[in-house]
Predict the 3D structure of the following.
Amino acid sequence: MKFDKVTIIGLGLIGGSLARALKGSGSVEEVCGVDADRSALKFAVSEGVVHTASAEIEEAVRGAEVVVVATHVGIITEVAKSAAEAVGNGAVITDVGSVKGWIVVEMERSLPEGVSFVGAHPIAGTERSGVRHSDGELFNGKLLIVTPTASTDPGAVEKVSGLWRLAGAEVVPMEPQVHDRIFGFVSHLPHVVAYALINAVAAQDDPPGMMGYSGGGLRDYTRIAESSPEMWRDIVLMNRDNVLSAIKEFKAALEKIERMVESGDSQGLEEEFQKSASAKREGG
Amino acid sequence: MKFDKVTIIGLGLIGGSLARALKGSGSVEEVCGVDADRSALKFAVSEGVVHTASAEIEEAVRGAEVVVVATHVGIITEVAKSAAEAVGNGAVITDVGSVKGWIVVEMERSLPEGVSFVGAHPIAGTERSGVRHSDGELFNGKLLIVTPTASTDPGAVEKVSGLWRLAGAEVVPMEPQVHDRIFGFVSHLPHVVAYALINAVAAQDDPPGMMGYSGGGLRDYTRIAESSPEMWRDIVLMNRDNVLSAIKEFKAALEKIERMVESGDSQGLEEEFQKSASAKREGG
């Protein structure tokens, strides 16, 4: 699939990496980057992350076939609406947000005539952020979940899927609500739990300095809890019901183990722990 | 520090790696390995992990200055007692168990005259196990916690500390009860939580196959939950009170976040998540 112009709003790790991949593919005539941060824009131009750059959405989306909104999740709909107002007839707006239901509903009820919106979520990333860490190989072999609804134009879905395939991603379609339930469990819950665990350990002062002993299992949690507090605040609030239901299920699983520790149920504990090791191997 | 003979009982990842490090240091005349598994013994001899090997504890500990019990934590005291009965006068027995209080108390009330016990816990390891994955550099630059009590012979503590320094470890003395409280929080709790989280996700069948989407945060948990179910059953039961108290503190931290999600407390959530990111940075 070939594109004349693709505009990416938000040159962070995700937006910058997508820009590099699309530019590198040779199948996009013009990759245009937008960012409110002038130093990110300057870097993107001087390092050849994009072909062209602009600080103005209205200017940048002119003539774009696809506009990818890769800003922080909390401002995606606001930015996408501005882009939709400014973009030409027949253009497709898409995003990269970790929550889909809320964004898709909000976009569908506000789209101007002749503009399509297709929700998307690349399952890739690192703890690092910013265009300086962007990497054209970030999405290679990774999943890209695309969340069309009954009212989404199939041609628009094809364009967004084709774009991500240029970056090496494997495209998987999913209903927005199914996406949010799954990622409430496999991504949002693990983050909430990591934050709670680090907070619980850090709050201990008898003895002080426990956080210094991270070699025995804590380090994997600290890595998760390094993610942006603002972003995760927005994600859990935008996916509130699923996150609450995931927390509830997790607490039940934890309390089952807690009761076994209390009663010294050695066999039960081994079975619980074994179940987990098997689930891991099946999930891959 | 130089040693004539050191016997290591249990040639798994930890025992095998210590054997390689001590042999490699050139400061131990004879590193003798013991394992009930003949294929592990054969591997250890043919690959030069140890100087000598035996399947019999009684034979292997003869003439040893230090005996390191590196078996599964659940049988450490049983094995250490056999070694203590067979070893010569003036010898030191030590271990590598993740729980110290219970082991130290149990050993101190059963030691024969003329034999010392010093509890120890190397803070190193990988998800892999077995002598085939052993690595002479595993302890290099890592912590070794040594847990003497008021009745431990200072000379014996020096010997055990010196041995681990030959393997490159940094030796930190700590009371057994302090060790167990700290590691209840920084190691045993993270494992229990990872097991509970993986079990909660794996139990979902709407939609099925959630474990397949591990890229968004779940992967770090599956890594932790890969550890041996038998070993973790023993550890949490041997450190029961500390593990229960850590679970309680963790649940309180989680429920604080849960209430904020419920009430849509955006500022509170950002603060909770920020606290965690800061604690991480301080802990290093």
Remarks:
- Chain A has two domains: 3-174, 178-283.
